[in-house]
C-alpha cells in the first residue's frame, strides 16, 4: 500500500469527535403520555445533565466511521498492489547526429545522457518509463510505460544519427504521454535557440560542449561507363587543423581484379569548404574516410555504384518519314539513349503516329492550320521546362484528347492523356524540329521516363532529405533499412519521409530486392559543434500544479465506499 498524498490521512481526526458524540448523552425533558403502549421500545434517558454512558446505536457509528475512513483514503491517494508502486516518468532524448560527439570514451555526450537518465529515474523513484527519441519522425525507444530497467537498457543501445530537426513536435507528443501537468525530461546537447519557447512542463537539460570538427558535408558519385566520378566537400568547423588526409578506397567492380586506394592531402580554408573530385576505373563501392575526431560519423561515407541506365526509345513502323527523321537527329545527338523495339515491349518511350496506343504520338489529322504565336503553355508542368517557342511555326490539325499543355487560340498543340503525350504536329510543314524547343521537349520526355522507373531515382541521399521512390501499380513493396522493414503504400512516383538513420535502404517487391540507395550521415548543421553547451532549465510549471492536475488519476473505490456507507447509515437511522 502507498499514499500519494499522506497529508490526506489527517481527515482521520474526524473520528474523535464522531465517537465522542455517540458516547455523550444530554439530559432529556420528561414527556407525559397517557399509556405505556405508546412506547414501542423503552429507552433509558438521562435524569441529570450531560454525562457519558454506553450508546446503543453501534451499527450507525460503524457505518459513519467507515465513511470517514473512506474519505481519508481518497484524500491521501491510497494505492494497492501494482498501483501502489507505479510512478511514470517520460524521457525524451535528442536524436540528432551531434549527440554522438565524443571527447574521451567515457565523456561522450551519449554517456552523459545515459548517466543523467539513470539519475532522473532514481530521483523520481520511477517504476515505469516512456523513452522517446526526437527526430523528423519521432519514435518510441521504450514504452509506453515499460519497466525502468528496460527503458535504460534501450537507451544503452541507442545511437543518435538523425538530421537537424525541430524538437517541438516530439515534446508535445511527450506531454500527451505524460499526462496533464506531468513533467517531461528532455536531454540534449545544446541550449534552446533564441526565440524558442520551451513548453511549460518540459525540463530542458543540455549536456554538450563546444568542440572542433572536420567533416564531409557533401558526397556524390556518378558513373559513366567504367568511369566513376566522386565529388566530395570537406569543411572545417573551429580552429582545427589546416590540412587533413582524405583516404579513399574503391572496391573492385565487375571484371576488375583489384581495388584502388588513395590518400589525398586536402587544404582546409578558415571558412567554407574544399571540393575534392576524383575518378576511378572499374570501381565498385567507394569508401571515403577522414581521420576520427569529435564526430567520426560525419567523416565516413560509402558510395555504391550509381550508373546512368539509358532510356530505351522505340519508333513504330507506321511513323511518318519526316517525323522519324526529326526524331532520329535528336536521338543521334542525345546521350543515355538506347534504341528499343516497340513491338517487343522493350521501349520505355515508344513513338507512333496519331491514333495509335504509343506513349508518345506525333502527327496531325483533319484540317491543318499553321500558328506562329502567341502560344500558351501550362506553367509548372515538368514536360515544358525550358521549352521556348519564340520563332516557332507550328502546323496542327484537329485537337487531340487529354489535358492541354500547349495551345494557340482554340487549337491544342500538345496534350497529356493518362500518361500518354500527344504532339499535334505536322513536321513537314513546321519548323519546330529545327529550333531549340525540339531537343529540350524530347529531353524532358526522356527525363520523365527515367523518373518513372521502378526503384530509386537517386542512389545517394544526405540525412534529412525525403526519399523518392517509384513503384508499379498492383505490386506489393516494402522498404528495408537499418531500423527494420516497413511497407510502401501507393503507386507511381512517391516521396517517402526522410529516413531516421543513415545506411543502405533496399526496395523489395514481393520479398525480392529491386533497387537500393545509400543515406549518408552528412549534415553541415549537425557537424558544426561550436554552438553546443550545457544548461539545466527547470520546468516553468510548478510541481504543486502538476500534482493537482494529476488528481484525476486517483483510485475511485474509496469514493464508492464512502457513498455506500452514507446510504447505509441513512437507511439504518431512518428505520430506527
Short characterization:
The chain is an alpha+beta fold. The protein is built from eleven helices and 34 strands. The strands form nine sheets. An eight-stranded mixed beta sheet has the order 18-17-19-20-26-25-24-22. A six-stranded mixed beta sheet has the order 7-6-5-8-9-34, with helices on both faces.
Topology:
Layout: E1 2-3, H1 15-23, E2 24-25, E3 51-52, H2 58-75, E4 78-79, H3 81-85, E5 88-93, H4 109-123, E6 128-133, E7 139-147, H5 148-157, H6 168-178, E8 184-188, E9 202-207, E10 213-224, E11 227-237, E12 243-252, E13 260-267, E14 273-281, E15 283-289, E16 300-303, E17 311-315, H7 321-333, E18 337-339, E19 349-353, E20 360-363, E21 369-371, E22 376-377, E23 394-396, E24 403-408, E25 411-417, E26 420-424, H8 437-451, E27 460-462, E28 467-471, E29 477-481, E30 484-488, E31 492-496, E32 503-509, E33 512-520, H9 524-527, E34 534-537, H10 543-549, H11 557-575
Parallel strand pairs: 5-6, 5-8, 8-9, 17-18, 17-19, 19-20, 20-26, 27-33
Antiparallel strand pairs: 1-4, 2-3, 6-7, 9-34, 10-11, 11-14, 12-13, 12-15, 15-16, 21-23, 22-24, 24-25, 25-26, 28-31, 29-30, 29-32, 32-33
Helix pairs in contact: 1-2, 2-11, 4-5
Account of the 3D structure:
It is built from eleven helices and 34 strands. It is an alpha+beta fold and 576 residues long. The protein has five domains: 2-80 and 560-575, no CATH class; 84-210 and 531-553, Rossmann fold, CATH 3.40.50.410; 213-304, Immunoglobulin-like, CATH 2.60.40; 311-451, Class I glutamine amidotransferase (GATase) domain (Rossmann fold); 460-520. The strands form nine sheets. An eight-stranded mixed β-sheet has the order 18-17-19-20-26-25-24-22. The protein has a six-stranded mixed β-sheet with strand order 7-6-5-8-9-34, sandwiched between helices. Strands 27-33-32-29-30 form a five-stranded mixed β-sheet, with no helix packed on it. β24 and β25 form a beta hairpin. The protein is elongated, with a radius of gyration of 39 Å. It starts with a strand and ends with a helix.
Amino acid at each position: 500500500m502507498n499514499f500519494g498524498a499522506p497529508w490526506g490521512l489527517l481527515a482521520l481526526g474526524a473520528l474523535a469527535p464522531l465517537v465522542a458524540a455517540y458516547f455523550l448523552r444530554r439530559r432529556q425533558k420528561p414527556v407525559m403520555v397517557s399509556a405505556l403502549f405508546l412506547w414501542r421500545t423503552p429507552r433509558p434517558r438521562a435524569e441529570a445533565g450531560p454525562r457519558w454512558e454506553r450508546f446503543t446505536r453501534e451499527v450507525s457509528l460503524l457505518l459513519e466511521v467507515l465513511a470517514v475512513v473512506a474519505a481519508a483514503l481518497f484524500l491521501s491517494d491510497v494505492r494497492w498492489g501494482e498501483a501502489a508502486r507505479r510512478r511514470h516518468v517520460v524521457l525524451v532524448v535528442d536524436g540528432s547526429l551531434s549527440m554522438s560527439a565524443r571527447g574521451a570514451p567515457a565523456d561522450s555526450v551519449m554517456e552523459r545522457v545515459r548517466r543523467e537518465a539513470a539519475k532522473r529515474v532514481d530521483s523520481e523513484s520511477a517504476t515505469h518509463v516512456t523513452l522517446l527519441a526526437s527526430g523528423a519522425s519521432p519514435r518510441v525507444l521504450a514504452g509506453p510505460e515499460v519497466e525502468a530497467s528496460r527503458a535504460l537498457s534501450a537507451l544503452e543501445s541507442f545511437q543518435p544519427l538523425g538530421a537537424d530537426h525541430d524538437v517541438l513536435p516530439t515534446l508535445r507528443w511527450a506531454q500527451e504521454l505524460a499526462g496533464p501537468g506531468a513533467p517531461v525530461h528532455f536531454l540534449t546537447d545544446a541550449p534552446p535557440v533564441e526565440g524558442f519557447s520551451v513548453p511549460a512542463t518540459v525540463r530542458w537539460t543540455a549536456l554538450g560542449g563546444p568542440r572542433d570538427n572536420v567533416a564531409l558535408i557533401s558526397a556524390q558519385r556518378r558513373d559513366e561507363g567504367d568511369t566513376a566520378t566522386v565529388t566530395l566537400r570537406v569543411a572545417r568547423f573551429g580552429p582545427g587543423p589546416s590540412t587533413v588526409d582524405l583516404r579513399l578506397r574503391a572496391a573492385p567492380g565487375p571484371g576488375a581484379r583489384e581495388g584502388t586506394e588513395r590518400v589525398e592531402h586536402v587544404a582546409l580554408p578558415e571558412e567554407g569548404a574544399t571540393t575534392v573530385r576524383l575518378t576511378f576505373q572499374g570501381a565498385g563501392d567507394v569508401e571515403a574516410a577522414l581521420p576520427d575526431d569529435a564526430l567520426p560519423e560525419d567523416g565516413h561515407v560509402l558510395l555504391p555504384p550509381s550508373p546512368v541506365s539509358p532510356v530505351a526509345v522505340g519508333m513504330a513502323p507506321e511513323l511518318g518519314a519526316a517525323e522519324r527523321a526529326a526524331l532520329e537527329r535528336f536521338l543521334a545527338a542525345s546521350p543515355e539513349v538506347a534504341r528499343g523495339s516497340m513491338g517487343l515491349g522493350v521501349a520505355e518511350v515508344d513513338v507512333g503516329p496519331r491514333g495509335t496506343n504509343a506513349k508518345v504520338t506525333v502527327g496531325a489529322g483533319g484540317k491543318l492550320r499553321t500558328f506562329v504565336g502567341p502560344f500558351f503553355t501550362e506553367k509548372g508542368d515538368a514536360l515544358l521546362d525550358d521549352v521556348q517557342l519564340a520563332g516557332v511555326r507550328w502546323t496542327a490539325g484537329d485537337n487531340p484528347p487529354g489535358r492541354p499543355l500547349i495551345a494557340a487560340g482554340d487549337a491544342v498543340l500538345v496534350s497529356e492523356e493518362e500518361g500518354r503525350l500527344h504532339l499535334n504536329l505536322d513536321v513537314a510543314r513546321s519548323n519546330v524540329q529545327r529550333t531549340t524547343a525540339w531537343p529540350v521537349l524530347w529531353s524532358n520526355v526522356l527525363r520523365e521516363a527515367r523518373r518513372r522507373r521502378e526503384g530509386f531515382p537517386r542512389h545517394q541521399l544526405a540525412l534529412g532529405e525525403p526519399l523518392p521512390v517509384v513503384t508499379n501499380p498492383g505490386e506489393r513493396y516494402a522498404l528495408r533499412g537499418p531500423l527494420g522493414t516497413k511497407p510502401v503504400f501507393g503507386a507511381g512516383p512517391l516521396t517517402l519521409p526522410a529516413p531516421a538513420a543513415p545506411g543502405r535502404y533496399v526496395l523489395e517487391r514481393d520479398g525480392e530486392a529491386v533497387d537500393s540507395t545509400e543515406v549518408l550521415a552528412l549534415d553541415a548543421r549537425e557537424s558544426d559543434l561550436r554552438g553546443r553547451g550545457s544548461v539545466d532549465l527547470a520546468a516553468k510549471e510548478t510541481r504543486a500544479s502538476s500534482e493537482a492536475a494529476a488528481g484525476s488519476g486517483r483510485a475511485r473505490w474509496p469514493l464508492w465506499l464512502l457513498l455506500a456507507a452514507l446510504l447505509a447509515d441513512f437507511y439504518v437511522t431512518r428505520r430506527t
